[in-house]
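Appendix B. One record, verbatim.
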Amino acid sequence: MIDSQQALANIAVVLKKPKYAENIGAAARMCFNMGISRLILVRDEAPEYEDMAKMATHKAVHVIDRMEIHDHLADALAPFSFVVGTTARLGRKRTVERSPRDIIHEIIPLLASNNVAFLFGPEDRGLTNDDLKYCQYTSCIPTAEFASLNLAQAVAIHCYELYCAIVEMTRESAAEPEFASTFQLEGMYEHVEAALLQIDFLNEKSHHYWMRNIRQFLGRVRLSSKEANIIRGICRQFLWHQRSRALNPDKEPNQS
């Protein structure tokens, strides 16, 4: 059975460029209320401490004190095998949105062996398509008509659903394997892109379109660390072979 404390320890809330320090404090308070201790901020500079601490209250101010701050989203997400992007925006280029409850039912079995991040965008515009490329899941809170929620409210709903699902676990679950981290996946995608460019599969006009589709496909596959390294190794060997052929055009290929 998955230990609830271990599961909660493997979860982080990531806030990308929040505008208001009060929302960060309110998010910290909600994380602490629901047993989540890891809060990560992606921002150029640290917000006003007193404004954050006031909303966090003295009970949860330690979450603010231990909060990680990164300049770039990729660095913040590097340790996580799975990222859940939260959004109310719909569009042709967006993946299919599902409710937090639906997403969390799939996330729970992964928490025994994997770190999972819940990513929230800035209050005024949310996550961009470029942000969502890191996400294997997209969560959309269902509402009656007006879809926009305050940042702290969105954090509260996801943390609540997570806590309820974790503490109510009663059946024994087999641990999932260790899946590839965002850092490993980004390295793999770089080699996949380089290999596809080498064989002219990607042209300038459709380059980003095809890479977005490849990312979505491989994201659904849920590659393990070993599988990501295998794909990267194949692409690396292919690129080496192409460079070798280019430098030695008269060399005959190996005969089996």
